[in-house]
Design brief:
Strand content: 25-35%
CATH architecture of the largest domain: 3-Layer(aba) Sandwich
Distance between the termini: 29 Å
Number of helices: 10
Number of domains: 2
Order of helices and strands: EEEHEEHEHHHEHEHEEHEEEHEH
Largest sheet: 6 strands, mixed
Number of strands: 14
CATH topology of the largest domain: Rossmann fold
CATH class of the largest domain: Alpha Beta
Helix content: 25-40%
Length: 304
């Protein structure tokens, strides 16, 4: 299990991390989410020793992470770091050997992962000869070629077409099913909701929400209701400043209401306006949970 424990990091006056704490369990896919500048990349850099925290520590299987532990990790950084003029298969083999694989084993692993990524016919191509999407696939293969126990991906879906996204998603799920812990950041919350089992949300260097997506839905301080009153076009809500209307579509409206709201009174009001065809709870989307989690700190002065 990966444990991020009370990490703090400043760059001069800029606070990057402020007591960041969360865990990532083996075989689970964790979405690490936050606004730009929230501290996601700094956290990942601390895991890999690329940044040294001012306070706190990173633990793997109960021990403080060291060089030997990091050899068992796979990392796909947001700023891609491959060699454009190096042949693809040679590049994968090189990185596998950097993680301790013997050359013959590394060569075989490189070809196996190129085949899995649908790039075995480009093994002898230079990286710069590949499309952006195929370069992304090579970058992911580089993070996987040494068979890591933990996989950390920073914006892995950036710039990919739907086929590339499907390939990436399948590979991530396969690794998770094999017991590999996966942590990835992404601004594409629909993909995170589809792929991830757990979510960690960071804002201003602090964790503001963490847990399974269903747990976060249950803990939400507000309810999402879908109400349809025939022939009303939603006019029965006009002038009500307490209800938040998220969406209007003909007679159907989607509302955001506090959990303490009197739903019986709201239903009675809807019935006065006409025939109520729909009055149903709608589980909030991850994007809505995200906005609810970061809203309390959104007005704070940016610190990074």
């Amino acid at each position: 299990m990966l444990e991020i424990l009370d990490l703090a990091k400043r760059y001069g006056p800029v606070v990057a991390l402020d007591g960041t704490t969360f865990t990532a369990r083996p075989g689970r896919i964790v979405g690490f989410l936050g606004p730009n500048g929230a501290g996601k990349t700094t956290t990942m850099r601390c895991v890999f020793g690329l940044a040294r925290p001012d306070r706190g520590e990173v633990r793997w299987k109960g021990a403080v992470v060291d060089r030997d532990a990091r050899l068992r990790f796979g990392y796909m950084p947001e700023q891609r770091g491959l060699y454009p003029r190096m042949r693809v298969a040679e590049q994968l083999s090189y990185f596998a050997q950097q993680h301790g694989m013997p050359a013959t084993v590394a060569n075989a692993a490189a070809m196996r992962w190129l085949e899995r990524m649908g790039l075995d016919d480009r093994a002898k191509s230079k990286l710069e000869e590949l499309s952006h999407g195929n370069q992304q696939r090579v970058q992911l293969a580089t993070a996987l070629v040494h068979d890591p126990e933990l996989l950390i991906l920073d914006e892995p879906f950036s710039g990919l077409d739907p086929i590339g996204i499907a390939t990436m998603t399948d590979v991530v799920r396969e690794r998770s099913a094999a017991g590999v812990g996966v942590v990835f950041s992404s601004h594409q919350l629909d993909l995170v909701e589809d792929v991830c089992e757990d979510v960690v949300i960071i804002a201003h260097g602090r964790i503001v929400a963490a847990g399974g997506i269903d747990e976060l839905r249950a803990a939400s301080g507000r309810q999402h209701l879908e109400v349809e009153v025939v022939g009303s076009a939603g006019a029965w809500l006009d002038g009500d400043g307490e209800l938040i209307v998220l969406e209007r579509a003909g007679d159907r409206v989607k509302l955001l209401v506090d959990r303490s709201a009197d739903l019986d009174a709201l239903l009675a009001r809807a019935r006065q306006a006409g025939e109520v065809r729909t009055f149903a709870y709608q589980p909030p989307k991850l994007s809505e949970l995200f906005m609810e989690a970061v809203a309390p700190v959104a007005a704070e002065e940016p610190t990074r």
